[in-house]
Amino acid sequence: MEKRKLLNSELDRLRPDQFKEAKKTPIVLVLDNVRSLNNIGSVFRTADAFLVEKIYLCGITASPPHKDIHKTALGATESVDWEYRKDTRELIEELKSQYHCLAIEQTENAYMLQEFQPESEMKYALVLGNEVKGVGQEVVNSCHGCIEIPQFGTKHSLNIAVSAGIVTWDFWSKLQLKSSTKKP
What we know:
This protein is an alpha/beta fold.
């Protein structure tokens, strides 16, 4: 059986103006001192794919417009809302009144991702860190908790763009399952 690849025009995707009006997944992504412009662009694409509310670019994290962000974002910087903030910890303190703030980091007492069940009535701020140092300790301390992505090989971490994709997909799919199983 042949399997013809679908054309982009057959994928029924939202236009940027439709994206802006669409109901969003109750998630914001916070990038804490992310160095790689390609990683930043990839996070924008992930945020677009799963209707994330907003991305906060903090500290040394670069912001659009930039050709290297654009190269991997492929236009997602136009659809996804974003904001630059100098101090990640200060931002987390602000967000805590509206969002359950979770650092994606390996810490004592972290929730393992597969065991964490997001609540459908809650909004989440997911904090992703620097490619070498991870989420800053001061930022970790400010968060409500931490989530760890289980790993079984020899390396100690995943690429930040990969981590963003895994965690965003996991939250999105768990929240979708909860909303589809709600009783009227």
